[in-house]
Design brief:
Two copies of one chain form a homodimer.
Chain A: E1 2-6, H1 10-21, E2 25-30, H2 34-43, E3 47-49, E4 60-63, H3 70-76, E5 83-86, E6 103-108, E7 124-128, H4 131-144, E8 148-150, H5 153-183, H6 192-200, H7 220-229, H8 234-250
Parallel strand pairs in A: 1-2, 1-4, 2-3, 4-5, 5-6, 7-8
Antiparallel strand pairs in A: 6-7
């Protein structure tokens, strides 16, 4: 397929790499800022472009810009019948109505960062304005991923919310622990195997059945010790207390 | 080495398997309850035992019982000069003073569950009452792990607190998301690749530099959408609000 990428951030970059890797052609990379469009276009053997009016013809146009810019970008496109998709979890497909009669969603349910050397497995949630659009988007997604699922706007928004909880919030816990380790001169990297284990074992058993720690076993002495250790870290202490309460209510 | 295991729960079971796998002999497995001691003893080709007074001689005695039972179990042992360790993150090594003159800590910085089919990588934090004890414990730990670090009681307690944050709390986020997926008829397993990516990529880059999501980019529309989606889930809404605030303060 011939692809035009609209955007040059993390999502555009990683999807562009994956798309090229699977044998498609990326023709153009658009960004408002030429200094952003150019390096990605070069990497993908595409042409950089800064005017939405100067985009050429392609089989699929992929809009990967910040959520709140999607509708504005779409309104500046005039693609007639050409297929256009956005890649956002929380934005309705109807944000693309002004761009073309054929539109849909190609949402990667993954955290994509251009600086990570290995492209992770990316499940896609797809949607289309018509069943023909949906079939085209589904088939395209299958060329770049082993896991493609049809999801409506509502279904996608709920999975996006779950994704925020399991990824953004977990990552924040890691960031907090890393900061605490720095302040207490502990080696945060000692926790890597534990973090990996917690993430990978939920494929064997439900996380609700795997909960461990002082909160779930109501180990008051350890809970008190931890509170004492956190007396100079009020923001962590706050999160710690809320988690303890939330865990204890969940398993009551 | 000849090992006697005191305890038959998750830690005793997984450490017992690892110790046997690396060529040591587990002679006896103690539990208060014979029906607990017996299956683990059978698996490890050891003898089950329910009396702490009937333990034989061994090179190392490993106490892997609940934190609040360690001191009590230790006080019933009379091991003279035989080396005894506990495996707890938050309990001082001095809890073993009554058991023997030679004691220390062999703390696995990992979440160990007997039902998980693959034994994960286990970093150990070790401590000893004397430098000879420490050397013995360190050398033993090195036979079952590639990553052994000396840590005092205080250092170990801080890493244990960090471990609670990155593992128990993350797992709770996964459990909450799984429950939300069930209620909203989403497929939680679609999130496995994302969860794995979040956990594994922190080895490439600090989590503080990898934070993404609506909170850190102050995407008010998505934050409002999520609040609306959670209106019938007050406990998740509460956590969501606290994380949003905590993330925004962390990156201010």
């Amino acid at each position: 397929m011939q692809v035009i990428l609209i955007g040059s951030g993390n999502t555009a970059t990683v999807l562009g790499r994956k798309i090229k890797e699977e044998g498609h052609d990326v023709l153009q990379v658009w960004s408002r800022d030429l200094s952003h469009a150019k390096p990605l276009a070069e990497e993908l053997d595409a042409r950089p472009e800064t005017s939405l009016k100067s985009l050429g013809k392609a089989d699929i146009y992929i809009i990967a810009v910040p959520d709140d810019a999607i509708e504005n970008v779409a309104s500046q496109l005039d693609l007639h019948n050409h297929l256009v998709v956005h890649t956002a979890g929380s934005v309705s497909k109807d944000a693309l109505q002004k761009a073309s009669r054929n539109f849909g969603v190609l949402y990667p349910l993954q955290s994509l960062r251009k600086e990570i050397p290995v492209i992770p497995e990316i499940p896609f949630l797809v949607d289309g304005n018509t069943s023909d659009d949906l079939t085209l988007i589904y088939d395209f997604a299958e060329t770049i991923s082993k896991r493609v699922t049809v999801a409506t706007d509502e279904e996608r928004k709920k999975l996006h919310l779950s994704a925020v909880i399991v990824s953004n919030f977990s990552n924040h816990l890691f960031a907090i622990a890393e900061e605490y380790c720095k302040k207490s001169k502990s080696d945060f990297s000692l926790l890597y195997p534990l973090i990996n284990e917690i993430a990978s074992r939920i494929e064997f058993e439900s996380p609700a059945k795997l909960q461990t720690g002082p909160a779930v076993r109501n180990d008051l002495e350890t809970l008190r010790n931890h509170e004492e250790l956190l007396k100079d870290h009020p923001e962590i202490k706050n999160l710690y207390a809320l988690f303890t309460k939330s865990i204890q209510e969940f398993y009551r």
